[in-house]
Amino acid sequence: MQLDLGSTVHCTDGAFGELADIVIDPIRRRVTHLVVQPHRRHDLARLVPVDRAQPHERSDAGISLDCTIADLSQFESVQKSAYLRLGEFPIEDPEWEVGITDILVLPYYESLTPGVLGTGIQPVGYESHVTEVYDRIPKDKIEIRRASAVVSSDGHHLGHVDGFVVDDEDRIGHLLLEHGHLWGKREITVPIGAVGSIENDEVQLSLSKDQVGALESVPVRRWPG
Asked: How many H helices and E strands in the chain?
């Protein structure tokens, strides 16, 4: 099964949204869960075991889940948030791991001395707390999204993860790498044996930039939206 990030996710009663992220066991190199969401609504994303998915009957139509759209609301919600001091980490949970995170730092405002040019209200610093929006994923797993970086063994940023190809036991066979610039993007198929490590939001290859450039490539597939 090919898991293309951004591809359409279908339920038994119609299209639901898109495949947003993929959750992986980094030791066994196996996909365990899919993060699916309505289009561009990560706040409504759900965590679905990969064994609930199969290729859509049309090869270019994404994946199908064995449940209805209403059933998806019963699956675990992915996105959480916490208001933390700078440097703090969300409370550790024995059952869950913190996946991909986004930190929001808001400036605070303080009135300046009267007579100062302008409105008298200027940003002069930052709050000592931040709002951390993060994904909650199963313990000892990592999360990859479409924006996750792919880095060569000699330290070059090669592009972003476009998806994975998995076998019947959900073991990763190949990484799909979106490589290049706006007008020259191509998809390179990287065998899993050439992947050095998979971490949250990043894949490190055991190949150099030149070695990756020599791999077989095809034009990048574009999904609606």
From this structure: 1, 21
